[in-house]
Write the structure tokens for this entry.
Amino acid sequence: MILFIIFGWRGVTFTKENGTFFCPQCGDGSPFKHKTVRNFFTLYFIPLIPLNKLGEYVECGNCQGTFNVEILDYDPEAQAGQVQALFMVAMKQVMIGMLLADGNIDDQEVIELQQIFQDLAKVEVTEQDLREEIANIQSQGINTLELAAELSGELNDNGKEMVVRSAYRIAGADGYVDESEMNFLHQLATALQLSPAHLKGIMAEAIEHSNA
Ligand SMILES: [Zn+2]
């Protein structure tokens, strides 16, 4: 008679800590789980002996986004004020660049930009102010793609995706995404150092959401 002993290794995920944190996508006060993944020696598929730690991350309970553990040290009161403000200004300019990509200032796109910006920044912005800013960028010929390239170093993949998703929403606000807008999206993705495949994925997801 031959007796088989089945052994192996597998990663087991534990929740180390629960609480609330500042989620870059959902904002302050979002629930989180601090998770660690540990390698285990298994016997007959039962994890028996804990081995090395494989990694750890923080998962948001609202959006299921995952972040580096450092996010827990992030004090939105102290640090975010500045970083966030800078990010929002750059983000707004990138969205204006998108809006201008097809050569005309569509009312529907302006309203959509106002809406997205208020959703993200949680501050009121009047249509008047927005139109002035659009006119400014247009007359000064500010290159919003260069701005995006500078922004890319400050952003993780989640942040970059948020920028692209917002730009895509602006592009589609007038009912369709035309060739010049598509071009801008591709240039934006390049400026943010996102691969064409990554951009495709973000757009597919956005289309799925808008159809849902
Ligand atoms: Zn979240």
Observations:
- Residues 23, 25-26, 30, 60, 62-63, 65 surround zinc ion (CB under 6 Å).
- The chain has two domains: 7-73, 76-211.
